[in-house]
Design goal:
The protein is α+β, with helices and mostly antiparallel strands. It has helices at 62-74, 137-147, and strands spanning 5-7, 14-16, 21-27, 29-30, 33-39, 49-50, 53-55, 83-93, 96-105, 120-127, 152-156. The chain contains 2 helices and 11 strands.
């Protein structure tokens, strides 16, 4: 992972700063069910269920990124004012670091559907207490934390 070099104003030493990659996730809830998508042909956790999610693009806020990702991945429109941050996870991955922000939406427009057929092969609602066995483990942890109102957790791969 590349990093920005910051020049120390007191000397000519360059300091490489560690960077974390921010990702946003949508916990779309209907009654006692949550919407999960099965990853397909992505090269990461394929065949496992996760959440509509993505990385931020340059100059996006967390909420702007989630609004964009929800439209791109499941075709629903969100208003950033309706999003609530419910969990944050620091994921420590070899040679990498992530900070994941999980949001719920008070409301959304449109019926969820697979928009990226080359990256997702199932989009289904699951009962809170009956998530599929092949749910991505850190997603399972984040959802369990959300149900217990735990706002922060850590995951190490």
């Amino acid at each position: 992972m590349g990093g920005n070099r910051k020049k120390d104003t007191m000397s000519t030493v360059s300091i490489e700063r560690f960077k974390l990659i921010p990702s946003v996730y949508l916990l779309l809830i209907a009654g006692s069910k949550i919407l999960l998508s099965r990853r397909y042909n992505t090269g990461y956790c394929d065949g496992q269920y996760g959440l509509p999610a993505g990385h931020l693009e340059e100059n996006e806020t967390l909420k702007q990124g989630l609004v964009r990702e929800a439209k791109e991945e499941i075709g629903v429109a969100l208003d950033s004012a309706d999003l609530e941050l419910v969990h944050t996870m620091h994921r420590k991955i070899p040679n990498d670091g992530r900070v994941d922000f999980f949001f719920t939406a008070k409301k959304h427009q449109g019926e969820p559907k697979i928009m990226e057929i080359d990256k997702c092969d199932d989009l289904s609602w699951f009962e809170f207490n009956n998530l599929p066995e092949n749910t991505i483990p850190y997603i399972r942890q984040a959802f369990a934390a959300f149900l217990k109102n735990i706002i922060y957790s850590e995951w190490e791969e």
